[in-house]
What we know:
The protein is α/β, with parallel strands linked by helices. It contains 22 helices and 16 strands. 48% of the residues lie in helices and 14% in strands.
Amino acid sequence: MYRGTSTSAGIGIGKAAVIKEEELVIRQDKVADAEAEVQRFRDALGKTVEQTEVLAADLAAKVGEKEAEIMQGHLMLLMDPMLTGEIENTIKGEAVCGEYAIETVCNNYAAVFASMDDELMQQRATDMKDIKTRMQQVLQGIHPVDIASLPAGSVIVAKDLTPSMTAGINPANVSGIVTELGGKTSHSAILARALEIPAVVAVSGVLDSIEDGADIVLDGDAGIVIVNPSGIEKSEYEGKRQKFLKEKKELESYIGRPTITKDGIHVELVANIGKPEDVEKVLQYDGEGVGLFRTEFLFMDRTSMPTEEEQFEAYKKAASALKGKPLIIRTLDIGGDKEIPYMGLVKDENPFLGYRAIRLCLDRKDDIYRPQLRALLRASAFGNIKIMIPMVTCIDEIREAKALIEEIKKELDGENTAYNKEIQVGIMVETAAASLMADVFAKEVDFFSIGTNDLTQYTMSVDRGNDKIAYLYSTFNPAVLRSIRYIIRCGREAGIMVGMCGEAASDPMMIPLLLAFGLNEFSMSASAILRARKMITGFSMEELKAVADEAMSFATAKEVEEYMREFIK
């Protein structure tokens, strides 16, 4: 038995299809005719674009336009004139082969994306490496493994699955995915969930341990992989598979139902999105609104700052689609870790503690902050928009931001431009400073949204991307739980809404604790909403308060997790 990270729920049973890609050898070969080499690169680029367009179209047909946007993102990268221009300039300037120029330039871009503190942004690094490899394969005449033609009942076993490989899967023939690398938020994991294929990733050494054609059983909920299972094990997991399919069907009955505990406490289940188009999926899963709209996507993958008008149209589109449901939009959260060329940012030595988010925006009001706030205020006339300020550490920051908003309101009044005069302004509570000062902040803002990913990182002084200290990164650590409980208490005492938009909001072991603490709003991926609603409606607050008291009596994250795991069973 192997253990890994569950990324797509369900039970997969079938035969191992071991995927080993032909290794690329990239050398710094010099070329005599740089212009001819540039043309060779352009031909390969054109072919890669054609292949990607086919993948995007196939994916749209299989699971819908929304999921196909991942491959559309690959097309945007491939056709980015900054990227392709830099590759061509490298070929010309250094007289090197196309493969090496692609390697150098794409790796530089991938490193920038990988350094970002937002997990969704970090996936751009994987996307960049994916298109890099595909362009190089075309140049070297290497044909990628044809995953689309795998026989029925295949369980894919691979080092990693790139988004393009996942997009090529025929879901009718693939009953599971097992990889050595990957994570829950990777684009491959997102596509696996969209294709409804059970998947377990981060299974160490699995590629060299499993033979092609071996019998495989995988549990996408528990993160378990069994090679050559016994008859009893096969029968057991077939039963689990039938149970999973039945429960999945039952979740549909929670569409249209209010999210209320057994003793009548109502909470809101909302979603995290990155683009206006994501609202479609929020409504599909009966989300009660949007708890986090990440505006960074509007600023990425382009060569100039988005205009006020462009931003206005994006925010208006999302607000209109929600038809009055709340839409919390986070102002720009980027900084020295994101080398966006047109912004002219200097790379920070320690980007997580550096010049970013509200610090950057307040320093660059005229070209960054004012246009965004004007766009947000103007769009508020078309829906229930709320403004959320990220990375706040002191009262001065929120007061300065609010003063700027009031200044812009007066401008709009002078222009006779419509906006919601009572628009709410809140903060993302994600730093230790904001947590400790939550009672003071609660008197200054209209709502809190707890960002558990960063709150955990900052509270525990742990870089969540560092594998060597990953054992310290747990939202169940008593220090983090105490912080969360205190933030919620301060918000409730001040009479403001307290939500959560980090990963913990959809964690089945965390939900009971958050309910007991008094959290008003849970923001998560749209696909997690119905499962969370089913869970919440099965609890009573009286029961959960006793559970929370017991959980908070423990001294270690491990003890809390073990206790909560037993409780939700």
